[in-house]
Amino acid sequence: MALRIDPAVYEALARWAADDLRSVNAQIEVLLRRCLHDAGRAPREVAPIPRRGRPRREL
Which of 8, 15, 24, 49 gives the lowest tally of CB atoms within 10 Å of its CB? Predict the structure, then answer.
């Protein structure tokens, strides 16, 4: 999927993503999910975003 976005907006997203230790793609997904949730439009069948850090060790 291609996304056309203003270069200045992309650079701002890239800086924000770096601050949060995410890729730009992951940052965009986080922001879109938040917006959908806040607007009451988030689909129920979408899995939550995996938490950052090391995966839990299975016992």
Answer: 8
Residue-wise pLDDT tens digits, 48-59: 877 766 667 776
pTM of the predicted model, to two decimals?
Answer: 0.75
50 within some domain: no
User: What amino acid is encoded at 5 in this protein?
Assistant: I
Q: Which of 40, 39, 42 is nearest to 29 (CA)?
A: 42
Is 28 domain-assigned?
A: yes
Judge contact between 38 and 31, C-beta under 8 A.
no
Q: What is the extent of the structural domain holding 29?
A: 7-38
